Write the structure tokens for this entry.
Amino acid sequence: MAETLKIPSFASSVGVLSVIEKILNFKPVRIYYVYNLKKKTPRGRHKHKKTKQFLVCLHGCISIKVYDKKKNSYKSFNLSKPNYGLLLEPQDWHEYVAKKNNSIMLVIASHTYQKKDYIYEK
């Protein structure tokens, strides 16, 4: 099941550096970001056969709903700070919406894009 992870961050007088690679339970293979998200317009709505993902909201606020098949219910996660991310396992069916216009989300994935890896049913 999905879990929120705090990203180790190091502050100085010139800014903050956040380091992700040591908290992931997979080797990053694909890195991309989604932006110009329209407020309240859902995206995602799928799960994967093998891909793990780590989502970080770099700007704005993004709400992510994850379906828990065992409990037959949804769990919601709000990402609005760049030092927290959401780790998704392949079986985590998810959808996300921007809570603020112009939100930006970074996605780090364990595999390259392969259409056959996507499952749209819960």
